[in-house]
């Protein structure tokens, strides 16, 4: 895959735009901003919806108790819940996309792990021209403990980053 | 003046876009990004070049010595230098703008004070739809002491913020 370049394409050249989506209203608003401002009917852009699932250790730890071993039923139920969540977020994002009659290819990428690292790595791997994301995504507790995902991406993603706040 | 709204305009509605410019290559690159990606020939947008001069206390302190009183000649020479700098940055930004044959009104605003506060206040006062800026603007020492201006604006500016890094 082409590596992300922090360089400019000429006007009218097709762009690869990654929008980081999650369960929040804000990320859907960021997607709307992107469709309103970064796409044009004259250019065939590609919009990549990126959802990052938390790593299993984090998603399980909130239920965890010392010495407790999860049964395979519990683990498969949690995996199903995680899949359902991905599907719900993607469907919601697709509904937002469908409202804009735009000349845009849609792709979907689901990552797994620490959101800020996965987003920056994916942007680079996909050769993205722009990353669009909400300001407060990926959960209050993670932000409080680890700092803001959007702060990190604004610094380290290898392309321009648009940070959108929910009104 | 209309207050900045963190809401979406319909596609084709005219936009007010603030680009924070300074002496850096990166801010000129941010301006190019803006002209390539956020303006369209079909829409009459307004691009506002915002330059923030440091407050006098900061610009003078690097020359200052305890007990030293500046003569009026020194002060007026420093004021002239500051005006020349504003003029040089604005001229450079206008040259970048002129390279893009775009349907964009150009306005210039010069602020004075702490860059991050002045940028956020100006965005709000001007009713801006988008703020575009470099990642590392407004000097190494100020960043090291006070944190990044772009970090602050990404969090507190009342509109979507685009952070552009120089390649």
Automatic annotation (TrEMBL), chains A, B:
UniProt-listed Pfam families: Usp
All copies of domain UspA, residue ranges: 15-165
Protein name: Universal stress protein PHOS32
The species this protein was found in: Cucumis melo (Muskmelon)
Gene from which the chain derives: LOC103494736
């Amino acid at each position: 895959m082409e590596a992300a370049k922090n360089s400019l394409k000429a006007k009218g050249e097709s762009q690869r735009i990654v929008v980081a989506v999650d369960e929040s209203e804000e990320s859907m608003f960021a997607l709307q901003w992107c469709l309103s401002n970064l796409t044009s009917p004259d250019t065939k852009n590609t919009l990549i919806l990126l959802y990052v699932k938390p790593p299993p250790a984090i998603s399980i730890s909130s239920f965890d108790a010392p010495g407790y071993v999860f049964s395979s039923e519990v683990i498969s139920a949690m995996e199903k819940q995680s899949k359902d969540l991905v599907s719900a977020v993607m469907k919601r994002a697709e509904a937002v996309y469908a409202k804009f009659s735009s000349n845009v290819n849609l792709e979907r990428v689901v990552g797994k792990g620490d959101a800020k690292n996965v987003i920056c790595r994916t942007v680079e791997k996909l050769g993205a021209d722009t990353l669009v994301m909400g300001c407060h995504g990926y959960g209050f507790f993670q932000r409080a403990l680890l700092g803001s995902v959007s702060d990190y991406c604004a610094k380290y993603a290898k392309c321009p980053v648009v940070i959108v706040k929910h009104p």
